[in-house]
Amino acid sequence: MATLYEVRQLAESSGARRVDLKVTDLAGRWQHITVPVERLTSELADRGVGCDRDVLEGARTGGGELALVPDLDTAVLDPVLSTPTLSLLCRLVDPVTSERHTRDARYIAEKATAHLESTGIADAAMFGARLQFFVFDDVRYQQASHTAFYFVDSAEGAWNTGRDEAPNLAGKVPPGRGYLEAPPFDTLADFRRSVAQALAGLGAVVESERREAASPGQGEVALRHRPLVQKADELQWTKYVVRNLARAQRKVATFMPKPLHGEPGSGMRTHQSLWKAEAPTFFDSNGYAGLSQIARYYIGGLLRHAPALLALCCPSTNSFRRLTAEESAVHLIYSVRSSSAVVRIPAPQPSPSSTRVEFRPPDGSANPYLAFAAILMAGLDGVQSRIEPGDPLDKDIQQLTASQIAQVQTLPRTLDAALDALAADHAFLRKGDVFTQDVIDRWLDVKRAEVREMDARPTPYEYELYFSG
Questions:
Q1: pTM of the prediction?
Q2: On the chain, which terminus has fewer CB atoms closer than 10 Å, C or N?
């Protein structure tokens, strides 16, 4: 564990004059307070800096203050600020009782890891992620009582083949045809490499970065697995780096799952495996796709609780515009081959350490601490309850007959339905007091309010359908 002396030495050697204290709110956004480096004292390290509780909880509760107490192990030099700044991720602590705040998302992820260890099943949960996003050149939107619109633009967009760009050099990407395109069609290759370099400076291992399928500006960064909490930290840094490096190039990045109609959306495919005494527990050379019985039970837990998991892993109404049978994995099956499977097994790997399972529905609108903790708790419940996942389905779903397809269960179609699933099925999250009831209740309240606000507003397409009807 890092000491205050070591952190101060890092600040001095890097020339940092400011210390940025970052914390993740319940919705998954970073909030921060910046102090002079001289304030990085033992008192600050022990007691933290006060902040308004309401800002972090997304509601006016009149709950007073919380303290941001830095986790010294997370100290790094911020890779995007022009002023050398030391960054520290923080714990949320009640300044009166010194107890951890139950709605601290990072604390929930830490408790999930501790619960795993307490079960004796494993002592480490390793998570990896493939995070997708869009980078646009221009974004405008407005919502008012008398108007509602959005407009996005990208130099790569197929709709710009006829635009006067003085000169227009063509090379636009056809709809849905951008996957793995090379320059000059891929105009963001240098941008993604700069993202990968910045993340490498933070200690992340970027296994690949690539052009994704949508016509305008869609990319992906694949990050090697790390322990759950550290991986969630890394996802927060990835979003921060992508957004800020895009802004530096006078562009704008978004992790919104489905910003464009008629184009593929952006997901966050999540890989995981359990380890005990530094040995993988998911491998068995005699099992289907090299999976052990523990891995099968883990998959059983993911499939059983997947509807409830969506409320945390796909937590926006927009998420469900991406989660359709035409575009995403929505069938409650597991498979090596089927792209429709909610749980996919990467092709059998050459070594036990590579064996893992992939939960495909999550997207970048999720709070990674809550999403990863919930995924782990679902898998653990599968192991503890010995939930068999049934037989795999290694056929393309479109090859099945209509009657066969009707027998395959699917994910909820709306956020409201996913919230209903979470309300009915969250006992697995409550084990070990990982998710307290107040966290679940607060999440349901906030997200149901979002659904109500969305339902109350007419959309431009409704005008097209009904205005003259």
A1: 0.96
A2: C
